[in-house]
Amino acid sequence: MPMTASSAAEDVLVIDDDSATVDAYARSLRRAGLGCLTAADGWQALELLSGGLRPKVIVSDLRMPELGGIEFAQQLQKMSAYRSEEHTSELQSRLHLV
């Protein structure tokens, strides 16, 4: 599934390999007036985040074939932009695994 953007200011990044689940989350979030970006796996999400995306909330599936939610969180913490103590606590408050 390709990464998709709904607006310039993205509030939520939804990561899931099940396209029906991603679509349902994205529709609900957009109806609530939130910007939403989606990724089909943790690797796509890391690519978006390494490119400068800073969503207010990240929602990730735990079990995905390429890079699951826990492994995604571990990789994200290794990224230089998220290494500081401030960013680590910010990441923990933003990441919601489902």
Q: Can you tell me about this structure?
A:
This protein is an alpha/beta fold and about 100 residues long. The protein contains 4 helices and 5 strands; from the N terminus they run E-E-H-E-H-E-H-H-E. Helix 1 links the parallel strand 2 and strand 3. Helix 2 packs parallel to helix 3. The longest helix has 13 residues. It is globular, with a radius of gyration of 12 Å.
Q: Describe the main β-sheet briefly.
A: 5 strands, mixed
Low-confidence stretches: 1-8
Query: Got a strand count?
Result: 5
General shape: globular
Overall pLDDT confidence: 78
Distance from N terminus to C terminus (CA atoms, Å) equals 19 Å
Number of helices: 4
Radius of gyration: 12 Å
Strand-residue fraction?
A: 15-25%
Indicate the structural class: alpha/beta
Features of the shown structure:
globular, 4 helices, alpha/beta
Structure at a glance:
The protein is of the alpha/beta class and 98 residues long. Helices cover 43% and strands 17% of the residues.
